[in-house]
Specification:
This protein has 230 residues and is an alpha/beta fold. It contains six helices and eight strands. An eight-stranded mixed beta sheet has the order 1-2-3-4-5-6-7-8. α1 packs across α2. The chain binds S-adenosylmethionine, the ligand Nc1nc2[nH]cc(C(=O)O)c2c(=O)[nH]1, iron/sulfur cluster (SF4) and magnesium ion.
């Protein structure tokens, strides 16, 4: 659906890493607060591309000023060709990150340099299939995988605590939720995101379960608001 960058990874385990983004179309979920609804609600346009074409676009748009590619979506796991894309990125000497919710497994996930599994808390309106998630965690035990949960309310935080207890060996990230993904008032958005971040920190510091969790904002929304392609 889009190739953009170089920018910085604004979320999770490699936050701050300079990276290109490849965003795939389509999602098996429909989270109420999804900040990338255009990938699945029919408002965006997507073109079917071969992995080699995406590599050429990465080179043309990135201009050689990058060494890391993040594949996000939508759910990148819905596309079989991604395995080949990952292989080609590695052949070019680039590291590869992936963002997925952990609902569809693909064998190429074992080859990913940093993989973020982001199961969805109750506020999203989605239900986690724990049989599937158990499979992901088992199969990524040797990989550089983390869990990241976006938090909007106390019920979400409880979900995150239960998840962290279920998979104690997996590095755990809590992320501020953006509740207004369409505003162009950056000053107002930044103020409300920082307020939500402070609230999330206050929950995490009180929790005996989150002693080794990392609490992070979405860095790119603090810098660029809801702008697309950054
Ligand atoms: C757009 S999703 C695409 C990848 C995959 N479908 C997933 O959800 O993990 C990328 C990341 O953005 C997060 N995200 C989506 N909407 C958000 C929002 N309104 N506020 C904060 N994070 C959000 C998701 O939880 C996920 O970690
Ligand atoms: N800078 C930046 N960082 C991101 N981290 C995850 C993103 C995503 O939409 O998956 C994203 C994004 O869209 N931009
Ligand atoms: S799983 Fe990810 S892309 Fe799909 S609807 Fe939820 S946040 Fe959006
Ligand atoms: Mg995003």
């Amino acid at each position: 659906m889009e190739v953009f960058g170089p920018t910085i990874q604004g979320e999770g385990m490699v936050m701050g890493q300079k990276t290109m983004f490849v965003r795939t179309a389509g999602c098996d979920y429909s989270c109420s607060w999804c900040d990338s609804k255009f990938t699945w609600d029919g408002t965006g346009t997507s073109v079917s591309k071969k992995p080699e074409q995406i590599i050429e676009e990465l080179k043309a748009i990135g201009g050689g000023a990058f060494s890391h590619v993040t594949i996000s979506g939508g759910n990148p796991a819905l596309h079989k060709g991604i395995g080949q894309l990952v292989e080609l990125c590695h052949e070019n000497g680039w590291k590869v990150g992936v963002e997925t919710q952990g609902s569809f497994w693909q064998d190429w996930m074992r080859e990913i340099d940093d993989i973020t599994l982001s199961p969805k808390p109750p506020s999203s309106g989605m239900q986690t299939d724990f049989t599937k998630l158990d499979f992901f965690i088992e199969n990524l035990a040797e990989a550089n995988a983390t869990l990241k949960v976006v938090i909007f309310d106390e019920e979400d935080f409880k979900y995150a605590e239960d998840l962290h207890l279920r998979y104690p060996a997996v590095p755990f990230f809590l992320q501020t939720g953006n509740s207004d993904t369409s505003t162009t008032d950056d000053a107002l958005l930044t103020a409300s995101l920082l307020e939500r971040y402070e609230w999330l920190i206050s929950l995490a510091v009180r929790s005996h379960i989150m002693n080794d969790a990392k609490v992070l904002p979405q860095l790119h929304t603090l810098v660029w608001g809801n702008k697309r392609g950054v």
